[in-house]
Design a protein that fits this description.
Keywords: DNA-binding, Phosphoprotein, Transcription, Transcription regulation. Pfam families: GerE (PF00196), Response_reg (PF00072). One of its GO terms (molecular function) is DNA binding. The chain is 49% helix and 13% strand. The chain has eleven helices and six strands. A six-stranded parallel beta sheet has the order 2-1-3-4-5-6, sandwiched between helices. Helix 3 links the parallel strand 3 and strand 4. The longest helix is centred in the C-terminal third of the chain and has 15 residues.
Length: 227
């Protein structure tokens, strides 16, 4: 199946470079280009995009707002957003993850990394750029009011719906482990892990694994480690 990619960046030169790269792959095609967030939201629906490569800083409706709009639209439930950022240590990245992005990637990444990111996002996996360590994500999720521990009481209560095994799997997902790795750690089959992940997403209202990571930290199930 061909992955339908939408490019959202206010720099035409960058869009052109991304288009050449994406269109060179036999399993991908660029179905549209947007110069701002509002256009990205519109085209995501019109062109039935699978993945949106979204710049954060754009005039008018920025990438953060556009990501939130896509995530809130039930008709765009199949759309996955990958945030492109110039600096990976970016104050907006955690907001983008909370808004519904499947992950992020630095604009300085290698072409192979960008193509892999598209495939990972299209497959419903959480995408963390190779340079973004688990500790970095933890620091993003720890940002906020220093007077509290970052917990969201409402989300903590939602964890009550999970079984013990689903909680165990959620902890592993938040650690950045793949289904195969989790299966090995918990001595179960990858299919069993996938079932637990899907059930956890349904119970917690998460679009994908990236959202499970956010819930795990915000609920206090997993504590950020700030080094």
């Amino acid at each position: 199946m061909t992955i339908r990619v939408l490019l959202a960046d206010d720099q035409a030169l960058l869009r052109s470079a991304f288009r050449v790269l994406v269109d060179s792959e036999p399993d991908m095609e660029v179905v549209g280009e947007a110069a701002d967030g509002a256009e990205a939201v519109r085209l995501a629906g019109e062109q039935r995009a699978d993945v949106v490569l979204m710049d954060i800083r754009m005039p008018g409706t920025d990438g953060l707002a556009a990501t939130r709009m896509i995530s809130a639209d039930a008709s765009l439930a199949q759309v996955r957003v990958v945030i492109l950022t110039t600096f990976e240590v970016d104050d907006y990245v955690v907001q983008a993850l909370r808004a519904g992005a499947s992950g992020f990637l630095g604009k300085g990444s290698e072409p192979e990394e960008l193509l892999a990111a598209i495939r990972i996002a299209a497959g419903g996996e959480a995408l963390l750029s190779p340079a973004a360590t688990k500790g970095l994500i933890a620091r993003f999720l720890a940002q906020g009011d220093p007077s509290d521990d970052g917990r969201d009481p409402a989300r903590a209560r939602r964890l009550d719906a999970l079984t013990v095994r689903e909680r165990e799997v959620l902890v592993q997902v938040a650690g950045g482990h793949s289904n195969d790795e989790i299966a090995e750690r918990l001595a179960v089959s990858p299919l069993t892990v996938k079932t637990h992940v899907n059930r956890a997403m349904a119970k917690l209202g998460a679009r994908d694994r990236a959202q499970l990571v956010v819930v795990a930290y915000e609920s206090g199930l997993v504590r950020p480690r700030v080094e």
